[in-house]
């Protein structure tokens, strides 16, 4: 195989970003650019190190906005990756800590659960192997209220979508 083909394959496999025009995987970007210095999981970082100040995400200690950190090149994220991280951090914050409080004890992280067991098929989140509709399952699982079941379905669907878990 020619050297340029090997280099191209290595670059593609080693990158958290996807093909041009697609949004980078936010979990992969976090794992590659942030986790070596911060918490291994973005959710733990967001809830442990960030606060919302005047509607903007900022560092707990410094008060500096996350956007300012990322746009200055902190972590070596590209502009696309920085935008993806900021959107991801906001989504994590907006989703609350319900998964950590009600689900993590049995299911680990929302990311690991989704990667291993869920997929989007025909626009619906379903069990990867069972085909079971997760929206219906959440209505009777984990003692979730109807509002919590909807919120959890949205969180898990967003993760599956950003992971490209579609059939």
From TrEMBL:
Keyword field: Signal
Keyword Signal carried by entry: yes
Cleaved signal peptide residues: 1-20
Listed name of the protein: Cytochrome c domain-containing protein
